UniProtKB/TrEMBL annotation:
This is Cytochrome bc1 complex cytochrome c subunit. Heme c 1 binds at residues 59, 62-63. The chain crosses the membrane at residues 242-261. Coiled coil: none annotated. Binds 2 heme c groups covalently per subunit.
Length: 267
């Protein structure tokens, strides 16, 4: 009887074993659980905070402290990170002075700062996100697909940008900028967000593959060698016909006038 009594467990043994088991389960979970998610969330939060600081110093005077918009600039709530990436990466924003249209110029921000600004504005509301490389990468497209991209471009874009992407004039002092030497990412973003007077081309209008084919067509034009001579602005038969009239017919009129004056003097 004394032997059995000495083998009896302590009253706290069962609770201690339960606590120990819970502790071991927690340690095991920490050992196998992925840590990337929390670190990624921390990095995004840090980036958004940095972007808010940059926005306050560089953008709030026109767009408002909370990006709600002012008389000097529109609201940026819901425009998405792609819009900010396009405007700031191409130097269009910040604007040096009010104008009908913001011109492309060298940017004053680093890639890290642009990403932070885009992340901050993107956190203010749903919008078009900065695209992934595979959405605008033209690798793997066939010659037929590049040619199809040219057809899509001429149908949807050439009325403003010219069939060769050289740009053109628009009403009210605005213009469609040339598309030469433009990064593929910026072409994709411009199509999706519709900066300034440009219309928005959503996924329902143009799929990602069709956008890639358009980009491939424009890059193919960029790569064409210069065969020499004057391109007359690259505006096609209209521009060439204009110069033919000015130089050809105008030259004939000058020569005819000169001949007539020489004949009058002879008399």
């Amino acid at each position: 009887m004394n032997f059995l009594t000495s083998r009896r467990r302590h009253p706290l043994a069962r609770p201690l074993m339960l606590v120990l088991a819970l502790f071991l389960v927690g340690v095991g979970y920490m050992a196998v659980a992925p840590a990337g998610k929390s670190s990624a969330e921390t990095e995004v939060a840090r980036q958004v905070t940095h972007g808010e600081e940059l926005f306050t110093v560089n953008c709030a005077s026109c767009h408002g402290l909370n990006a709600e918009g002012t008389s000097q600039g529109p609201s940026l709530v819901g425009v998405g990170s792609a819009s900010v990436d396009f405007q700031v990466s191409t130097g269009r924003m910040p604007m040096a002075k009010p104008a009908q249209q913001a011109p492309r110029k060298p940017t004053k921000f680093s890639d890290e700062e642009i990403a932070a600004l885009a992340a901050y504005v993107g956190s203010l509301g749903p919008g078009v996100a900065v695209p992934e490389p595979e959405q605008y990468d033209t690798a793997g497209l066939t010659e037929e697909e590049v040619a199809e991209g040219g057809e899509i471009f001429r149908t949807n874009c050439s009325a403003c940008h010219n069939y060769a992407g050289l740009g053109g004039a628009l009403p009210d002092g605005r213009y469609a900028p040339p598309l030469t030497d433009v990064e593929p990412r910026h072409i994709y973003e411009a199509l999706r967000v519709g900066p300034q007077q440009m219309p928005v081309f959503s996924q329902e209008n143009l799929s990602d593959k069709e956008v890639r084919m358009i980009i491939a067509y424009l890059k193919d034009i960029d790569a064409q060698p210069n065969r020499g001579g004057m391109d007359l602005g690259g505006n096609g038969p209209v521009g060439e016909g204009l110069w033919a009239w000015i130089l050809g017919v105008g030259g004939l009129m000058v020569i005819a006038g000169w001949i007539a004056s020489k004949g009058a003097r002879a008399k």
